[in-house]
């Protein structure tokens, strides 16, 4: 078993409204920053033991499917690295 | 001017309690997943125009300092890539 950290990034699908990101963008613009767009995402860093990086990625993928992401409104991606 | 996307990742500092991450970890364990630790972070993807990647990173850094992160409880990191 090797120790891995799986990173799951959960984003809203394109077209889903994100009022928090809009508010953040407007607040930055009010502070004088010039930006074209701002998107927000949630990032989960999960430490786990697995036999291989593939197994760690599969388990993180299942965690995203079952709990971390809502497939109706979210896309997600999984990245795995050694700890 | 080149179009860049700056990614600002905002994490709680080590030692700052994160009840949301603890709840998420326990919920995953209740679903039968085996994990050592789970940390959550906010990720902001900011599209902006700048003369260089360094300038884009500097501006994203200032956005983090002034609005996106709270220096008392957060660490943050900035990554820039071409759009």
In short:
With 83 residues, chain A is α+β, with helices and mostly antiparallel strands. Helix content of chain A is 34%, strand content 41%.
Strand order of the largest sheet of chain A: 2-1-3
Average of the residue pLDDT scores of chain A: 97
Distance between the termini of chain A: 12 Å
Number of DSSP E strands of chain A: 3
CATH topology of chain A: Mth169, Chain: A
What does this structure look like?
- The structure is a homodimer of 83-residue chains.
- Helix content of chain A is 34%, strand content 41%.
- Chain A has helices at 19-30, 53-68; strands spanning 2-12, 37-50, 74-82.
- Chain A has a three-stranded antiparallel β-sheet.
- The longest helix of chain A is centred in the last third of the chain and has 16 residues, at 53-68.
- Chain A is elongated.
- The model of chain A has no long low-confidence stretch (mean pLDDT 97).
- At the A-B interface, helix 1, strand 2 and helix 2 of A face helix 1, strand 2 and helix 2 of B.
Please outline the helices and strands.
Two copies of one chain form a homodimer.
Chain A: E1 2-12, H1 19-30, E2 37-50, H2 53-68, E3 74-82
Antiparallel strand pairs in A: 1-2, 1-3
Keywords (chains A, B): ATP-binding, Cytoplasm, Ligase, Nucleotide-binding, Purine biosynthesis
EC number (chains A, B): 6.3.5.3
Organism (chains A, B): Haloplanus ruber
Supply the key terms:
homodimer, 83 residues, alpha+beta, Mth169, Chain: A, 3-stranded antiparallel beta sheet, 2 helices, 34% helix, Phosphoribosylformylglycinamidine synthase subunit PurS (chains A, B), PurS (chains A, B)
């Amino acid at each position: 078993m090797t120790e891995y950290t799986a990173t799951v990034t959960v984003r809203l699908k394109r077209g889903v409204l994100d009022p928090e990101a809009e508010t953040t963008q407007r607040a930055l613009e009010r502070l004088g920053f010039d930006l074209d767009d701002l998107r927000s995402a949630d990032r989960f860093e999960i430490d786990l033991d697995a036999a291989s990086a593939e197994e760690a990625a599969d388990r993180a993928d299942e965690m995203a499917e079952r709990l971390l992401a809502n497939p109706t409104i979210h896309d997600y991606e999984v990245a795995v690295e050694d700890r």
